[in-house]
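Exercise 7.
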Amino acid sequence: MNNKIHVKTGDTVVILNGKERGKQGKIMAVSPKEGKVIVEGRNMVSKHVKARKMGEQGGIIKAEGAMYACKVQVVCPRCGKPTRVAHKIYEDGTKERICKKCGEAL
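Solution. The predicted structure, written as tokens, is:
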């Protein structure tokens, strides 16, 4: 199975579907093995936490939940539009991710 993901940590993305559709956020973590990403401040889930040490507080906390990487699309920093990622290979062998719409480096 191919475990490539089109987004990287730190990319600004827009969510394509679900209750958070149309909202933007920054990628905090990428899990290529599962094909999932965690977007900062989006897809909040309630997590039940048990107190582990004396004096530590347990309870219900809000945390970002993972979502499939195919449900997000990179936002170009120059044109500000959601875009697909293209790759450009230069003569010296370096590879760069570029915006499909405006051609700017991501």
